[in-house]
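Shipment paperwork, digital attachment
Item: protein structure file
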Amino acid sequence: MKDGETKVGTWKARFLLGLFALGAFILPYITGLIIEYTRIKQWELMGFTPEQTRAWWRNGFWQQSEAIRWRAARFGPDDAFSWKRMAFIAQDAKEWREAKFDVAGAVEWRRFAFEPPEAAGWKTAEFNVGDAVAWRKYGFGSLEAKRWRDAGYSPLSAADQKRLRGSP
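Attachment content:
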């Protein structure tokens, strides 16, 4: 052995490595498990099972209150995630879904400032969002626009004729 070297026994090296592993990996892991267990118990108080809690977490719902709002609106974690990703709150998503819209359809109609019942009326009258915007621009509601369209008028010509005659 050369001068300046310290002799550390094998058992001491293993002991130090074990302490390092305990401090660097095992303690944070155990702490994380304890925190997760505690949070799951808090969610269980509000009626979530551990599996449901983890499903909400997987879909980005970390706040229990937010998950409760979506669940109260009758959304599961996967459905809620797709609506939330498109910037809907639970109540708005519920209204759009009750009006028979999927996420993509709701986004499209909402982009043009339609409320769910109004959009549903236009959809029932067999208008796409572009045509509905054009007719609404000239002051027509969905039923009136349908009458004029079925009579062969465009939004502009219907608006002109409406001023002159009143109805198709």
